[in-house]
């Protein structure tokens, strides 16, 4: 086998050497004749590329007689040229949206470039990111690239172990709207109940979309509910799928963690393997294409239960879940005429996971020694299907651009439990169970009209449209033995995750109609003003009206001021309204049966908990952008976000206190239901966030290579201004949404995250060095004492080498310093490990290698 690999490598190297090399040189300028610094110049179908220097110049060696060069830079329209004899001169036009392109998030104007948006927008080139870093999925890629984005892998958190929650600017996962090619992506059916992030929230599972299918990710760091609808309180993430043609890319990646804490002699664990392929096929001369991606990823368990602790173990198994993920995605466009085309995109994702649940030790009364004489560690399994499909038509309607589309999405999550038992069945209990689950589906029909009036002052863009959305939510029961109690002297249901019961089952649906209008007026060449207005009506809670106003002013050629003010809203998800379950929680290591009652249940109505209503927000952003000299750029954006009536998961109310006294309000009701505690979804909190985003970029020539340096930071402070109770629980604010639950909300993001990156490219070599500082985070343990997680700095290092024009090898390490979060007593943390999932993750140093091919 090794000889065969060596022969193949030698043949490829020899074939490359036989080609006659030529040196190409040229210059890349913008429309005004200024040099474009750091523009990417790539020979099509190869990994052979370079970047322009401070004068916009480049040199590139090629072994092709008439190579095609792709020139691109953020903020400019890409251009493809054929290199001939002599110097190549390229003039890049500013990137604008048009009938044939996907518009940049934050503006519906067809003449608006990303560089002059009145709102802050980050553009992340996935090709650049994925070739130089060790992260493989979208959430982890963004976690270490975008400071305002936060996502941690959870462990010991039931469903959240399988679907990573993510957020912008420290708000909830469900307060960020996700678009794909500008169309609303459906949310996950999961509502997060445990873990240190996203408790009580639903969110969008970004990891169902393979990174290999993505051209770029646009992050609008600004409230945008008036532009795009519900969920856009914190901002919008727009995922733009690849549209490249006549190019095959493939990648094989593998990495593993250094196993610092293990009871055995295993040196590495958590092996992560990924393989993907992408190909685009051009159809005719009108820009029609089909671009397809296949992706496979498999991640193994990590084991971090063996951390030295004077208080002993809470669990014997603790670490990342095992996950297998298969995805297929498609992006396409078919021209009907010069002014009309049909587009279709979407994909399917199949995920299976195994996650550790809490240990049942040998002497636990929930164990059956005849089955597990040494106790057991239940495994919660997931079977997740996710699919989406968008079909649309874009054409001209007189002077207007018309966009008609239909969008369908579905997410289905099925639980299983193995290595478990139902103690009430004794020695006859099965050891694996089907535990039920839930499904969320979304159907969206939309129509949008856009027109630009070039003769109104310096240009007026008008847009209007309507969107009708229908959503379904289903919760279905598990098999009988997963939830039933067959002997009142023992605990019933599957240990690790009791199955959903027939009484939990529900089918719910709702409709939503949205109408919007927005306008952008260039008063002068320097001054832009914009406004948007949106009306939404939901059949389950009523109507809302939101607006947004923004402006941008170019003080000089190198300095621009911008600002926005907006109102926003988020409709409570169908899962938050309808979820109902009885589960086992571990409090200080002791199991307690907890009822999570749906919003309109008999229990919540008896306690006077009102129906959920929409969250509302007011947000403002003021910032500046500046290009200092020819190679240095700076953006500063300060923001304020106030959210009223946030939907949260309340604290858990106990039937009896520590002295075994019955709670006078809720105790009798809970004991009649056979549970020790209960919690609910409620509009319980008002929050206020103040923050600052800073991005500083510098490009310089260093020797014969190019060094790109980036300093990016987010500073964020979230305060809970008010906790409100109602009904029979009025006046019990500390119990209703106490300090411990408040700490989880405030820890959704560290107070600051600072990213310093150095990216150097010379000849066939490349190197990336990145430092990320995660600020301190405070949680509260089960005894009510603070857990202060200290600030941490992680270091990532990647070295890459182009083996030939088509193959590139990259090796490196993330968290090179093997840094872990602060250690605590596992008996008192949320998840039963020596730390909760905070900041940068808890698996230590990761080594990886990537082999990438481009033809």
From TrEMBL:
Belongs to the TonB-dependent receptor family. Residues 1-19 form the signal peptide. Its main location: membrane. Pfam families: CarbopepD_reg_2, Plug, TonB_dep_Rec_b-barrel. PROSITE patterns: TONB_DEPENDENT_REC_3. One of its GO terms (cellular component) is cell outer membrane. This is TonB-dependent receptor. InterPro entries: Beta-barrel_TonB (IPR000531), Beta-barrel_TonB_sf (IPR036942), CarboxyPept-like_regulatory (IPR008969), Plug_dom (IPR012910), Plug_dom_sf (IPR037066), TonB-dep_rcpt-like (IPR039426). PANTHER family: PTHR47234, SECRETIN_TONB SHORT N-TERMINAL DOMAIN-CONTAINING PROTEIN (PTHR47234:SF3). Residues 347-816 form the TonB-dependent receptor-like beta-barrel domain. It comes from Hymenobacter aquaticus. Residues 114-236 form the TonB-dependent receptor plug domain. Keywords: Cell outer membrane, Membrane, Receptor, Signal, TonB box, Transmembrane, Transmembrane beta strand, Transport. The lineage of its organism: Bacteria, Pseudomonadati, Bacteroidota, Cytophagia, Cytophagales. The keyword Electron transport does not apply. It is found in: Cell outer membrane. The keyword Membrane applies. It is a multi-pass membrane protein.
